Amino acid sequence: MSAPVSSIKTLNPTTNKIEKVFKEMTDSQLDHILAAADQAFLSWKTTSIATRAQLLHNVAKIMRTRKQALARLCTVEMGKLVAEGIAEVELCADIFDYYADNGAQLLADRQLTVKQGKAFLSYEPLGVLLTVQPWNFPFYQITRTAAANLMGGNTVVLKHASNVPQCAEMMEKIFIEAGAPKGVYSNLFVSGSRVSQLVASPYVKAVSLTGSAPAGSSYAAAAGKVIKKSTLELGGSDAFIVLADANIEQAVNMAAFGRLWNAGQVCISPKRIIVLESVADEFIRRATDIYKQIVIGDPLEAKTQLAPLSTEKGLVDVLKQVETTVKQGARLVYGGHRLDREGFFMQPTILTDIKPGMLAYADEIFGPVLCIYAVKNIEEAIKLANDTEFGLGGTVFGNNTDEAVKIARQMVTGMVYINHITGISPELPFGGTKQSGYGREQADAGFYEFLNAKLIRITTPESAY
Ligand code: NAP
Question: What is the spatial distance between Cα 60 and Cα 17, in angstroms, rounded to a whole number?
């Protein structure tokens, strides 16, 4: 089949101008890249740990050196604040270094205690990992999968979101410059609607996807059909529970600014703020004061605090979610409107009085909308936090950390942070439960997802059982 009309392009969210269009690859081009990745695996899997680690260190070094330019590319393609882009690139470099530094220890055989003889686990790579990623963290999303898997000896083929092709292409260039042998890391220009057909390719041995539930469902179904290991990192609607003894000023700052991070387009953004009634009015008043002062504008300017959303569709979807929820009876405390200027800008927004059955109660809102719920007691807070199809992250904010941990244990999510919004760091596992997906990335749990933990059992004549 020849390649269809391309949807792969850079459309600058600040100017609403198309900056660059890329050709979609044909089926035979895609097959050629997968075959090269499979071929590269044959030598990469036996390449020394030190050589693999050196590649990752080289990538980290290049990223740090070029962090300004890489951050600018993120801003041009998906609109994030340039300062956020710099922090993202620095985080990527830390992740590459982390796996380079810890690869040998993570890959060492794990001895098992047995009654007779010996037994151990040998960690062995699977082959080509086909990974699908979203646009919201153009470099971090790639890094989270690539660093651990390349260190483990797999080869990686990326299908990035169609609106961040220059970041996708740049990452491949960085790997080549860092010394990656041909086929160890490659990029595919293919639309989401065509990627599931690649899962059945005999060259592909495992698959991962970060994105929405519909995409994850069809991609993982394709993997299930051919019995290939998959992981899914999907949406979230993180609860942020504020206890009565919390430092309200700190809690409001953390929730209000946290919700504007990446213009609210973060899977682990604090999307549902659950506040005890006794402090709810103060919380809402302080959050409103903050949002009234927010500087919205060009994400390349240092003074800007709120960037545009990444696409026109993304903006229109969020505006509709707010409008519908208000029509259903919720209170629009602040914002809720598009800015009268070029680009995909929206006011920071606060909604309260959201009830079950309203759109914002159940939906993930992927934009700068702070939904605040007032509850009578902690039991009600936990019940509300868990009354969602999602289970990604969550926060408990309070002075008594023993009490906060008790509440954290009752939240049905993959991660809970005490006194902080859900975060990211290379040594901590990342992932969710329920409709937020399955499997983990990062840390030990993520490192072993796509390695075969092979049991080797040694019985000698003396130790025969
Ligand atoms: P999306 O539409 O699912 O796109 C994500 C990726 O999947 C893109 O590369 C997309 O390609 C591809 N895709 C689309 N349809 C597909 C299909 N049928 N089969 C296979 N791949 C397909 O997601 P989005 O709406 O842009 O991203 C936002 C969502 O991602 C939110 O729900 C957010 O919470 C979630 N997310 C989760 C995490 C996490 O770690 N849990 C992190 C970041 C984001 P095209 O661009 O070509 O369509």
Answer: 32
Per the annotation, the verdict on 74 as an active-site residue is no
Radius of gyration of the chain (CA): 23
Residue 233 annotated to the active site: yes
pLDDT of residue 364: 98
Say which of 77, 267, 364, 371 is annotated catalytic: 267
What pLDDT is stored for residue 53 in this prediction?
Answer: 98
Which one of 3.40.309.10, 3.30.1490.110, 2.60.120.380, 3.40.190.10 gives the CATH number of domain 238-418?
Answer: 3.40.309.10
Residues of the chain whose pLDDT is less than 70? 1-5, 464-465
Tell me yes or no: is domain 9-234+436-456 CATH 3.40.630.30.
no
Give this prediction's pTM: 0.97
212 Cβ below 6 A of ligand 1: yes
Q: Which among 271, 275, 281, 287 is positioned nearest to 322, based on CA atoms?
A: 271
The pLDDT of residue 163 is: 98
* CB-based contact 208:145 (threshold 8 Å): yes
The predicted structure's pLDDT at residue 461:
76
230 lines ligand 1 (CB under 6 A): no
CB of 145 within 6 A of ligand 1: the answer is no
Å from CA of 46 to ligand 1 middle: 33
Residue 265 Cβ inside 6 Å of ligand 1? The answer reads no
